[in-house]
Amino acid sequence: MTDAMDLTCREFISILASKAPAPGGGGAASFVGAIGMALGNMVGSLTVGKKKYADVEADIIELQKQADALQEKLLDLVAADAEAFVPLSAAYGLPKDTEEERAHKEEVMEKCLHDACDVPLSIMRACCEAIDLHEQFAAKGSAIAISDVGCGVICCKAALQAASLNVFINTKSMTDRAHADACNSEAHRMLDEYCRKADDIFSDVEGRF
Question: What's the pTM?
Answer without folding.
Answer: 0.92
